[in-house]
């Protein structure tokens, strides 16, 4: 089984996730840690739990999700993985980071591209990757069936969806991808979004005003 730890970092209140197995192998998703106290909070948990970080993954590469990439990659000497369609998004961050109040942002080089048609392994645990563009052109969602865990990034939120007015975004593409990929998951799947509280697939199917049964938008 897999366990998930949530951290909320930076002024965007971004959710950073540490996913780990019984062997204490861990993946860090979307490290938004920028200030030293945020970095210390993340590393303390990893040390306290005696975790061995094996990779760094971005669901997508908007600024709030990548602020800690260079720190994590350097601290744990791990490969950094994204979907290939996110590379231009990642490369653009350095051009506007200071304007958003992050002058010390460091770039991190990508080591490998993720293919949504293949499974991701954490030890012996199989994590499926779902391609859910619309908020960002190469957005991936990560799903572990046995644990009912879905790391959703900025696709599906409690009562909402990711914004689609940023470069590379498309509203209808996101709606269609959520319905096709995410709503195919079991209703009791726990959705851990990039911002805000956890929700479930079943709740969003029923109540989400964008993609639920009584969608208003």
Automatic annotation (TrEMBL):
It holds the Pfam family Lactamase_B. InterPro entries: MBL_Glyoxalase_II, Metallo-B-lactamas, RibonucZ/Hydroxyglut_hydro. Gene3D superfamilies: Ribonuclease Z/Hydroxyacylglutathione hydrolase-like. The keyword Hydrolase applies. Its cofactor is Zn(2+). Keywords: Hydrolase, Metal-binding, Zinc. The keyword Metal-binding applies. Transmembrane segments: none annotated. GO terms for molecular function: hydrolase activity; metal ion binding. Residues 13-195 form the Metallo-beta-lactamase domain. This is Glyoxylase-like metal-dependent hydrolase (Beta-lactamase superfamily II).
């Amino acid at each position: 089984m897999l366990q998930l730890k949530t951290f909320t970092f930076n002024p965007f209140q971004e959710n950073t996730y540490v996913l780990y197995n019984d062997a204490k192998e861990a993946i860090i998703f979307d490290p938004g840690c920028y200030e030293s106290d945020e970095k210390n909070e993340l590393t303390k948990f990893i040390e306290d739990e005696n975790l061995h970080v094996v990779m760094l993954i971005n669901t997508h590469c908007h600024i709030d999700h990548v602020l800690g990439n260079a720190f994590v990659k350097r601290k744990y000497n791990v490969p950094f993985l994204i979907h290939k369609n996110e590379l231009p998004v990642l490369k653009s961050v350095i051009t506007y980071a200071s304007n958003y109040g992050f002058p010390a942002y460091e770039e991190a080089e990508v080591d490998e591209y993720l293919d949504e048609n293949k499974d991701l392994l954490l030890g012996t645990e199989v994590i499926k990757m779902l391609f859910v563009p619309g908020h960002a052109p190469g957005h991936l969602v990560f799903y572990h069936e046995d644990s009912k865990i879905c790391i959703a990034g900025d696709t599906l939120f409690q009562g909402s969806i990711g914004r689609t007015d940023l470069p590379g975004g498309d509203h209808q593409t996101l709606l269609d991808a959520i319905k096709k990929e995410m709503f195919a998951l079991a209703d009791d799947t726990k959705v851990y979004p990039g911002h805000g509280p956890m929700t479930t697939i079943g709740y969003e199917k029923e109540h989400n005003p964008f993609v639920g049964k009584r969608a208003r938008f």
